[in-house]
Give the backbone structure.
Amino acid sequence: MTRALPRTVLVTGATGFLGGHVCRALVERGIRVRGLTRRAEAETISGVEPWTVRGLDDTPALRAAVSGVEGIVHLAAHVHERSVPADGTPEAERFRKVNVKGTRALLDAAATAGVRDLVFVSSVKVMGENSDTPLTEDVAPAPADAYGITKLEAERIVREMAGQGGLHAPVLRLPLVYGPGMKANALRLFDAVARHLPLPLGAVRNRRSFLFTGNLVAAVLATLESEAGNDIFLVSDAEDLSTPEFIREIGRALGTRPRLLPVPPAVLRAAGRLGDMVAGLLPIPLTTAVVDRLVGSLPVDSAKLIRLTGYRPPFRVTEGLRVTAEWYSGVRGGV
């Protein structure tokens, strides 16, 4: 059964990488979009009403922000590029403050305002870091760090609220996302290929899922437009690749040949363990966690999303990387 899209939507994290794509898609559908941001000077997509709050703990401003909106897409989160143990450290507490307490505050404000839809964007990291078989929603979560643990807690708050108040609240678990405006690991891969840096990944034989921003947007809309979309879903491009295959596809999109060296994965893992020993002394990028992401497998199965909502990824990996490469070439120039 289909359902009408909300006429007014608040997007948290509106000026971030994913927020820009979601805001643009909603505006193009004729939806009034309010973009939540912590900086008054931050630029939002044309057609988006900027709305500044001090943070997700700014209760009066948050209540004002959700007033009059029918839907929310919750993208804002505390994210860190390295794994942080959930051990009560100040860094771990920052994850909890934003990802758990902030999500609860947003849901409380939404309930008071009578919001009917909320899409919570989560991460495959709530299920762990590696899997040799495709993950489904039936697999028990096994987060390994503060980010994954707090995102899982936030998921449970969202689903609990959905059950209590009749809120239509899809949860989308994302793998590595790439697309125009990308940052962190995806951008670093493009940089490495564009600069012809030697990449010791030619001997890796893993399987991983990826997600293009255009397919993410399609998933958000599919869950909002489907009565059966009120659930937890894994999202991907529905094409799993090995790390070297993904790098070769990046090279094709950029019109260059990557320098892939056939270094055995065991050697890479040993290098990662060595990196762990000196990680606190030197800002080196090679640690066990980094190697696991490059060498380990992490495929996800989007069959449930496809079956229940009719979601179909509108972009194949080659198309998504071509669009991404066009953006990359425009902003990075001769890199």
